[in-house]
Amino acid sequence: MFALAPARSVAAQQVPQQVAKRAIPGLDASAMDPTVRPGDDFYRYANGAWDRRTQIPPELGSFGSFNIAAKKADADVAEIVHRAATANAPAGTDIRKVADFYHAFLDTAAIATRGTAPIRPLLDSIAALGSKQDLARFIGAHLRADVDPINNGVLHTDNLFGLWVAQDFNHPGQNVASLLQGGVAMPDRTYYLDASPRMAQVRAQYRTHVARMLALAGVASADAKADAIVALETRIAEAHWKLEDSEDPSKGNNHWARADFTRNAPGFDWPAFFAAAQLSHEDSLVAWQPSAITGIAALVGSQPLASWAALLAYHAIEDHAAVLPPTLDREAFAFFGKTIGGAEAQDSRDRRAVAATSDALGFVVGKQYVERYFPPAAKANAQRMVAGLITAFEHRIDALSWMASSTKAEAKAKLQTLRVSIGYPDKWPSYAALVVVPRDAYGNADRVTRFTYARSIAELRKPVDHDMWVMTPQTVNAVNMPAMNALNFPAAILQPPFFDATRADAMNYGGIGAVIGHEISHSFDNLGAAFDSKGRMRNWWTPSDFAHFKASTHALALQYDSYHPLPDLAINGQQTLSENIADLAGITAAYDAFHASLGRRPAPEVGGLTGDQQLFLSFAQIWRTKFREPALRRQLLTNGHSPGPWRALTVRNLDAWYSAFGVRPGEKLYLGPGERVRIW
Ligand SMILES: [Zn+2]
Q: How many CA atoms lie within 13 A of 399 on its CB side?
């Protein structure tokens, strides 16, 4: 499809003059900066004026297209929750659970009146821990299903370990329990270990924050305990794996027999832990970060019980801050919301109550959401685009000159068995076992985490559920589950600026089409490429194909390593590699699918723009994001995704972008044909 020789160029300055004068129905022409040449900074060309005029709302650390789409979804969800809140539904029904959860969370006066009484029993049980065996039992009893390294990419928990129950990479028909590293409250080991002045400053603020939280909760010797907690967390962080390693399923897939934990990770009473966690019947578990699990276990053995008790108490208080008195809630926000997250003001209690309810009873709210706000036509539209994108991908695989036919056959088998689920799950999860108590915000929060844990543990005794959804329909996002070879496209992402049935197709291909292509291609990124069509972790590549794939992906990692969003911090090309491959393959497949959809007709011009210009501009506009410094730093350090503005620059690897905007050698984003990374 892409010729190496440059196609007919459009003079670069032609496009800006056009867009400066007229509207482009379906795109935000007023967002563009016509003084920037597309080839110098395509993000700013598409979004520069928006960037200058946009203020990040005080309750957020960053703001972009996902927030713009979420604005409508959040308003819809608020209406659903508010309606349930006044419906007076019979006790025990799902709608009544929504109402009771929301009211209890909202009622800060009642929360303030109860003070720290709700958390007292938990703090007392921590204070009563008399031995390292008690400690292991406590940690097991409070293990939560709160991580997910490869679907949602949740790698952080402040519990000492996190549990993930999912399809076994070695035996795809069954589920397995994975244990992940945890134990630190700040988002990643770098916050504890990075030597930069900025991080040293964050750490000083953190130490003060920990002491304040303890004091506000009435814990004695808060200052001395804060020192011990930060010191212990720092030791834990030293044992932790880096994010780029934790993200890699081939490094994480370590099956340990349950009995081997004691031998491989001495210092921790594993039998007591497994019994309390209801995991004693598992013959083997996955130790996702083996050396970290060994390191943490050794610290349990070597560090004083009193330090561990202080750490557990602090984490318990921090985790429950939202449902404890406002002084604690505000202090938690001051550090985690402001210093770490970059927000300036806390969101309203009502909006937080709606969000907490939508998290806790996600698929109850989600079912209402799709019934009210997701028309069948939207699903049909998305299904048509998915089919087009899959075909485009298939043609790309066929056309790859470097790939052997045996590798192609397995790649195509993966495409053919891909399970694509749009809008909402076919089967709705049951919330029958979840008890929601009126006026008990603290208890409700705890019951939800226990309910989620019980549901995960129950999955261990069942065959893999291929219809399972890992995102709620009201989430503005999409996900590929690489081992399951399955995609979820929640209803809430099928709206502007990603999708709008009334605008030109080119814009939808550059928007939701690129998102669909992104998710499909995760099955073929550096992680997806490790699983075969059955979900087994297996190298299905010929050695020379895999070497070619590695070389191309390495070139892409280097490209992103060269971007410096902050003066002292670059994008980590390895940490973001999977997402960057998916962006590149996604826009490439979307471009192909758009052209295939045209048949032999020319693309209609809109606002003086060609079809290709519309497609690439739409792509750049879905990545518009503004950051405050802490939020940008956190994303760079703790996230697998490159920040939005740099994702827009993916286009510099596509020949069609050069011809669409007349990009020439010497312009800042220009790459010679041989330097453009082509993976799929
Ligand atoms: Zn992705």
A: 13
Distance 152 CA to ligand 1 centre (A): 9
Q: What's the 80 CA to ligand 1 centre distance in angstroms?
A: 29
Q: Phi/psi class of residue 285: alpha, beta or left (left: φ > 0; alpha: ψ in -120 to 50)?
A: beta
Please identify which residue in the block is written with the tokens 């959401």.
369
The H or E element containing residue 394 is helix 376-399
Q: Tokens 């956190």 correspond to what residue?
A: 634
- How far away, in angstroms, is 493 Cα from ligand 1 center? 14
3-state helix, strand, coil in the chain (%, to 5): 55, 5, 35
How far apart (Å, rounded) are the C-alpha atoms in residues 650 and 616?
10
For residue 582, report the distance from its CA to the centre of ligand 1, in Å: 6
| H and E: helices and strands count for the chain | 30, 9
- The alpha carbon of 522 and the centre of ligand 1 are apart by a number of angstroms equal to 7
Give the model confidence (pLDDT) of 235-280 as tens digits.
999 999 999 999 999 999 999 999 999 999 999 999 999 999 999 9
What is the DSSP secondary structure assignment for residue 346, as one 8-state letter? P
Is 583 exposed, middle or buried (CB count within 10 Å of its CB: 0-12, 13-18, 19+)? buried
Kindly report the number of other CB atoms within 10 A of residue 433's CB atom: 11
Q: 32 by DSSP, 3-state: which?
A: coil
Question: pLDDT digit string (tens) for 624-672?
Answer: 999 999 999 999 999 999 999 999 999 999 999 999 999 999 999 999 9
Angle, helices 305-319/197-216, rounded to nearest 10 degrees: 90
Find the 621 Cα to ligand 1 centroid distance in Å. 17
Neighbouring C-beta atoms of residue 392, cutoff 10 Å: 25
Best CA proximity match to 679, nearest among 577, 537, 576: 577
